Amino acid sequence: MQTIPKELVLKKFPTLEDSLLDELLAESTLKEVGEGEEVMRSGQYITSTILLLRGLLKVYREDDEGNEFMMYYLEAGNACAMSMMCTARNEKSQIMVKAVTDAEVLLVPSHLSELWLGKYKTWHNFVIASYRQRFEELLQTLDSIAFKGLDERLLFYLKSHVKVSGNEVKLSHQQIANELNSSREVISRLLKKLEQTGAITLHRNYIEVHDLTIV
Amino acid sequence: MQTIPKELVLKKFPTLEDSLLDELLAESTLKEVGEGEEVMRSGQYITSTILLLRGLLKVYREDDEGNEFMMYYLEAGNACAMSMMCTARNEKSQIMVKAVTDAEVLLVPSHLSELWLGKYKTWHNFVIASYRQRFEELLQTLDSIAFKGLDERLLFYLKSHVKVSGNEVKLSHQQIANELNSSREVISRLLKKLEQTGAITLHRNYIEVHDLTIV
DNA sequence: TAACTTCAGTGACTCTTATCACAGAGGGAT
DNA sequence: ATCCCTCTGTGATAAGAGTCACTGAAGTTA
């Protein structure tokens, strides 16, 4: 097991109280994951809560029939709310977490995470805040799927991608189609239209984003 | 203000500890709402958490552009997770809560609800459990919107309606269309198809459900 | 009973998205 | 250069869902 950089934890999770931090450092394990690696896969039992120290993760959900869609990005300083939820019920996960960039995660054993809810006020605030934030995001996603056309959703997707990882969106049309639950051809066509407005420029394997507000 | 029936509260919320129950009875207000009435409307500031003592409520969400869709039914013994969430941020609600049947709700002032999170372990368990449950339901809804056709969603909708209020679904096609974000004609046609399978019988203003599993 | 109002059924048409089929284009690897 | 493989572009076609226009049916009210 590697030593956990206390400085970093302190910096990324400033709201957590001191005694909790000590326990956190003592009891949790540090894991490094490389770009594209899976942090957690669908079907496993969830035994830890995930705290993200560095890097960027992507959280997917998979339903009974194998359909999958992205729920949200997880940035450093956040916890995976889904892992906390499932944890509680001792269920198999229906979620998949993948590293978008190289990343460091802190794995907190589930039983401790539960215990701390009662023991540390800052922890339970942290957990509740996480729930709320994800809930809100989920509602956003729901809104957009329920009410918007694919064109708007694509725009929304590109925006969120730019926000977390810059103006070179390194994705193939196929990958985008998968995440939006559509098909490549359709995405290609929509992207083409976007290119014609001047908002983006298409390349092989990546998209150069100029300005998505003009559309 | 009416007196709150302690027996009922005790029965519907058995997990709450005794001292909390006393405070709850002392500090919250009881409100009776008639069938069809709005308990909370979109755009108001949320100043209380809603606990449902008796009856059935329906929780909708409304987005910026005025689109609305049903999030879940709330049965006696449950709390409205949405009201707890919004509460925390002192935001205007984007939710609308309507009584499906006559109902009695307990309104807990927001600041108390927040305070109790730290003070009563059973309260924070209760709150966290509510979040989890709603989160799960929301994911269900998301799945079905993202991956299912309207026919399956209609089926799902009818099932959930039957579960909470019996085999006579007292809704017009128009109402169903609204809640599924579709249009009356389309719903009419789908219902007609369902009728032809023998699963339901259509009437004016209500639908008689025989067996939805056979479809 | 007659007039009115709300619900439900149906055909014709349009729009969006999905699917199929295929043609290039861009970049390795040999 | 040549071969190969993945990614992208495009037309044709089809399915699902929304819209429009209109008819009839069931209740309600006067």
TrEMBL record, chains A, B:
Coiled-coil regions listed in the entry: none
Can you give the residue ranges of the Cyclic nucleotide-binding domain?
Answer: 12-108
Signal peptide limits? none
Domain of life (superkingdom): Bacteria
InterPro entries per record: cNMP-bd_dom, cNMP-bd_dom_sf, HTH_CRP, RmlC-like_jellyroll, WH-like_DNA-bd_sf, WH_DNA-bd_sf
The UniProt record lists the keyword Translocase = no
Which Pfam families does the UniProt entry name for this protein? cNMP_binding (PF00027), HTH_Crp_2 (PF13545)
Domain called HTH crp-type: residue spans:
148-213
Alphabetic keyword roster: DNA-binding, Transcription, Transcription regulation
Q: What name appears for this protein in its UniProt entry? A: Crp/Fnr family transcriptional regulator
Q: Which species expresses this protein natively?
A: Pontibacter populi
